[in-house]
Specification:
Elements lengths: L1 E7 L8 E2 L1 E6 L2 E7 H7 L5 E11 L1 E6 L18 H13 L5 H17 L2 E8 L8 H12 L2 E6 L7 H21 L3 E3 L1 E2 L8 H13 L4 E5 L4 H10 L3 H8 L6 E5 L5 H10 L2 E4 L1 H6 L7 H6 L4 E3 L8 H16 L7 H16 L15 E5 L11 H8 L5 E6 L2 E5 L2 E2 L4 H19 L1
Parallel strand pairs: 1-5, 6-7, 7-8, 8-9, 10-11, 11-12, 12-13, 13-14
Antiparallel strand pairs: 1-2, 1-3, 3-4, 5-15, 15-16, 16-17, 17-18
C-alpha cells in the first residue's frame, strides 16, 4: 500500500518532508518519495490518504511497568515520605507482592491498548512480581502477541524475598529468552535484576553471564533516587556505577534505567563504557527522585531512550515532560529541543533497546508507524513541525497505527478490542490488589 501524508518524518530529528510518503510491502518500508511520484509508479496499489496529517515512526516506550496501572488510585493511609518509603512501605508490599497472573494479564492488555492508542509500536516492559513466577512472562507474551506490538519482556529478579526466589527470577528470564529465540516472533526477552541494594555481587555477575551467553542486554534500575548511591557508598565504599565497574559488568550490554542521581564520575563511566540508558522524566518527578542529566548524556552520545515507567502511557505527555522539565531545571530554554525529544522517543529508544531497523521510515526498516492529525491552530511548517507535535498533540490526535505492517488502530479505534470489557477486567484486578491496602 501507499501511505500519502502532508508531512513525513522519515528520519527522526532531521527536517520533516512535505508531501512525501511511503510504500509498505509486508512488514517493511519498501519506498520513500514524493506522494505524486509514488502514485505514478504504483497506480494499482491501495492508497491511504493522510492529507492534513503527519506520518511518523511509531514511538518506542523504552521502559515501562505495565502492571503499574493497577496502583493508580490505590488507597493509602499515609503517602510515602521518600523514595525508600515508596518502595518499602508501598510499592513492594502493596503492589509487587500482591500480583498474580490474572492481574498481570489484565494490566498488560490495558497497557498495550493505551500505548497503541498513543502511537507506541515497540516497548520494553519490566515485570516485578516475586510471587507470580514461574511463567508470568509467558502469560504476558500471549497478550502482547494478540495486540501485535513489538515487545521486549523481562522479569526483575531480586533477592529481597530470598536467594531461592532470586534464582527463580533469573531462570524465568532465561527460559523466556530461549523460548522467544525459537519462536522468532515480535516478542523477545531480556535479562533483568533490580538494584545493588537488593542483589548480591555474585547474583549480579550471574545475571550478566547468563545474558552474555544469550547475546542479550541486562537491565537494572540505577540511582532512581538518592537511596542507592548512598547505600553503595555505605556498603561498598563507592557509588553505584563505580561498584558495577569494579564487578566488571559495565559496558554496552548494560541497560540502566532512571539514572537520576549521577555523579560526574558516574556520567563519565556511562560514556566510557557505552552503557545504554533510559530516561523517565514524569515518574522521576512523581516519586521525588530528582531530574536525570539526560541532556548531558544525550550530548555525550549515550544511547538514550524515553520511557513512561508505567506511570502515564500517553507518549506525547512523556515527550512533553522531557521537553519542558530540563529547560526549567537547567534554566536554559534551548535544552532538549523538540526534534531531539522526538528522536529519543523513536529511533533513540530503539537503539537503546538494541532493536534493529526500528525507529525510522526508510527502505528496509520496520513498517512501524503512526498517522497524526496536523490540523494545528497555526500553520505547520518544516521549522515548527516537531514543536507542534511535542507541545500540541496527545493520544487523541493519533488517527492510525501500524506495527510490523499490520494496522492496529484505525480512525482512532483500537482494532479487535473491547475496551469496556478490558477496563472492567482491570477494575476487578485492581480491587483485589487494593484489598490488601485497605
Amino acid at each position: 500500500m501507499l501511505i500519502l501524508p502532508s508531512w513525513l518524518i522519515a528520519i527522526p530529528g532531521q527536517p520533516p518532508l512535505p508531501e512525501q510518503g511511503v510504500r509498505v510491502v509486508g512488514d517493511r518500508i519498501a519506498e520513500v518519495g514524493p506522494n505524486a511520484a509514488l502514485r505514478a509508479r504504483f497506480p494499482a496499489e491501495e492508497v491511504i490518504d493522510a492529507a492534513g496529517h503527519v506520518l511518523a515512526p511509531g514511538f518506542v516506550n523504552a521502559h515501562t511497568h505495565l502492571y503499574g496501572v493497577l496502583a493508580h488510585g490505590i488507597p493509602l493511609q499515609k503517602a510515602p515520605a521518600d523514595f525508600w518509603g515508596f518502595l518499602n512501605d508501598f510499592w513492594w508490599p502493596l503492589v509487587e507482592d500482591a500480583l498474580d497472573h490474572e492481574m498481570i494479564v489484565a494490566a498488560t492488555d490495558w497497557g498495550c491498548a493505551e500505548m497503541l492508542r498513543s502511537g507506541v509500536t515497540s516497548f520494553y516492559d519490566c515485570l516485578e512480581a516475586p510471587y507470580a513466577i514461574p511463567d508470568a512472562l509467558f502469560a504476558q507474551k500471549e497478550v502482547v502477541e494478540r495486540r501485535g506490538l513489538r515487545g521486549i519482556l523481562s522479569f526483575e529478579a531480586t533477592e529481597r524475598v530470598s536467594r531461592a526466589n532470586g534464582q527463580l527470577g533469573l531462570q524465568e528470564n532465561v527460559r523466556f529468552i530461549d523460548y522467544c529465540r525459537q519462536d522468532a516472533g515480535l516478542v523477545q526477552g531480556m535479562m533483568c535484576f533490580h538494584t545493588t541494594f537488593t542483589c548480591s555481587a555474585d547474583f549480579i555477575r550471574q545475571a550478566f553471564e547468563l545474558a552474555a551467553e544469550r547475546d542479550t542486554l541486562t537491565h537494572m534500575h540505577c540511582n532512581e533516587g538518592v537511596h542507592e548511591p548512598n547505600y553503595a557508598l555505605a556498603h561498598f565504599g563507592k557509588r553505584t556505577l563505580a561498584y558495577y565497574d569494579e564487578l566488571g559488568v559495565t559496558g554496552p550490554g548494560m541497560l540502566a534505567s532512571q539514572c537520576v542521581q549521577l555523579s560526574e564520575e558516574e556520567q563519565a563511566l556511562i560514556v566510557q563504557r557505552d552503557v545504554r540508558v533510559t530516561h523517565m522524566p514524569l515518574s522521576n518527578c512523581e516519586v521525588g527522585g530528582g531530574i536525570a542529566p539526560a541532556p548531558e548524556l544525550a550530548a555525550a552520545g549515550v544511547r538514550l531512550g524515553l520511557g513512561s515507567d508505567g506511570y502515564i502511557n500517553d507518549f506525547f505527555e512523556v515527550m512533553r515532560g522531557a521537553f519542558l522539565i530540563h529547560k526549567a531545571h537547567r534554566l536554559d530554554p534551548q535544552v532538549m529541543p523538540a526534534h531531539q525529544v522526538f528522536y529519543l522517543a523513536t529511533e533513540g529508544g530503539a537503539r537503546a533497546l538494541g532493536l534493529e531497523k526500528v525507529g525510522r521510515l526508510q527502505p528496509g526498516w520496520a513498517a512501524d508507524l503512526q498517522i497524526i492529525d496536523a490540523h494545528f491552530p497555526t500553520p505547520a511548517a518544516a521549522h515548527n513541525l516537531y514543536d507542534q507535535l511535542v507541545l500540541w498533540r496527545n493520544h487523541t490526535h493519533v488517527r492510525d497505527v501500524m506495527a510490523a505492517g499490520r494496522w492496529r488502530v484505525r480512525a482512532g479505534v483500537l482494532l479487535d478490542a473491547d475496551l469496556a470489557a478490558m477496563r472492567a477486567r482491570v477494575h476487578d484486578a485492581a480491587k483485589r490488589m487494593w484489598a490488601k491496602a485497605s
